[in-house]
Design a protein that fits this description.
Length: about 350
């Protein structure tokens, strides 16, 4: 094992502390070792617009950094953004060596940070724990690569695979601990997305309670524009943003929603349903990095049919309701088992009295 690996693992842990605070910037952590290999500084990118990880870590190390090593989870930047280039701080610190987990594909960096440091005589290595560093910044990397946010799908279901009873009642399927986790997720994403069916059936508020580091916009998908005259989302649109996507033409039915402060976005009508990709492309243009799709079955099905979901959060409650209640995923689905979507890195963990299932879809 590379002797620097434990330090890089720690830097990745530090980086994760910025989750929800720094997006659309990447999560970055850094550790500084002195010339004898002792850890003398650490830091992470704490908030959007604030100093980068290297700057915190090098400042903490001070003179002890001279002749030492900077371990950082992402290539140092070499451009002026909201803060000066990190390469300046690296050169001023006098470190002899920089070990980065991965290059930064951000167009204004893209290997430029590594080049600049090497030209100045600093020894630079890239690639230590690269897979872990990529996983950590999957949402950042996806937004850069595709212009679309990272899509989390979440649902709570009974042991017999229902997300509501046959009468449409779904409060509550999961227990307190699972609901706490969902609120935590809401508090670190840029948008919470539901379909018209869920607004009609549940009249949800979709805010994070207690609030998290970010305030997610609440997004409703309704090609028909047939949304209720009164509901919690519309009533609170001036406090927490609401965006409604509707098919062009049907957006005219939503002038009352717009008057109450909701943003109504017309999309091409397509074949009766909204295009998931058009929705994602719009949210990506707003530089949304993570979105949480909370259902119901129709919307989950549409995202899965479009192969547009990245990460899965499923809460299974030890309850059986039977009958003809809806299952979590509708849509076209697969006709052959061989075409089923597979969840990777699939894990199960207790969540109060429930089980929390987690996996990635690509
Ligand atoms: N347990 C849970 O975690 C959970 C979470 C959420 C909901 N639920 C339950 O789920 C049920 C609602 O599910 P649902 O399937 O009826 O409704 P849904 O998925 O919330 O909404 C479906 C509607 O979304 C709109 N939509 C826009 N674009 C779409 C697209 N590309 N594909 C599909 N739909 C699109 C359509 O409205 P238009 O007709 O206007 O085009 C469609 O009728 C309720 O019983 C609710 O309680 C459970």
């Amino acid at each position: 094992m590379d002797p620097l690996e434990p330090h890089m693992r720690y830097a990745l842990l530090l980086a994760a502390r910025g989750r929800g605070h720094v997006e659309p910037n990447p999560l970055v952590g850094a550790v500084v070792l002195d010339a004898a290999g002792r850890a003398v500084g650490e830091g992470y990118h704490e908030r959007f617009g604030g100093p980068h990880a290297e700057v915190h870590a090098l400042a903490a190390a001070g003179e002890a950094a001279r002749g030492g090593t900077l371990i950082v989870t992402l290539e140092p930047c070499c451009h002026w953004g909201k803060t000066p280039p990190c390469t300046d701080a690296v050169l001023q610190s006098g470190v002899r060596r920089v070990v980065a987990a991965m290059a930064d594909p951000f167009p204004k960096v893209a290997g430029g940070g590594v080049r600049l440091l090497r030209e100045a005589g600093v020894e630079v290595e890239v690639g230590l724990l690269e897979a872990e560093a990529r996983r950590l910044n999957d949402p950042y990397l996806k937004l850069l690569r595709t212009g679309r946010p990272w899509v989390h799908l979440k649902w709570a279901m009974t042991l017999d695979g229902k997300i509501a009873t046959a009468a449409g009642d779904s409060k509550w399927i999961s227990g307190e601990e699972s609901r706490r986790r969902v609120h935590e997720l809401r508090g670190r994403v840029d948008a919470v997305v539901v379909g018209r069916g869920t607004v009609v059936a549940d009249d949800p508020l979709l805010t994070a309670r207690p609030p998290g580091p970010r305030v997610a916009a609440r997004v409703v998908l309704s090609a028909s524009g047939d949304l209720p005259e009164r509901c919690q989302l519309r009533a609170t649109a001036r406090e927490v943003p609401v965006i409604v996507f509707a098919a062009a033409g049907n957006d005219a039915k939503l002038t009352g929603w717009a008057d109450d402060g909701c943003e109504v976005v017309p999309l091409p009508p397509g074949e009766g349903e909204l295009s998931v990709d058009a929705v994602l492309s719009d949210l990506g243009r707003r530089r949304m990095t993570n979105i949480l799709v909370e259902g119901g079955a129709g919307v989950h099905g549409a995202f899965l049919d479009a192969r547009a979901a990245d990460e899965l959060h499923v809460f299974v409650a030890p309850k059986l309701v039977g009958g003809s209640g809806p299952s979590p995923v509708g849509g076209r689905g697969a006709l052959r088992m061989a075409d089923a979507l597979a969840a990777a890195e699939f894990t199960a963990a207790p969540s109060g009295e429930d089980v929390y299932l987690h996996g990635f879809l690509r």
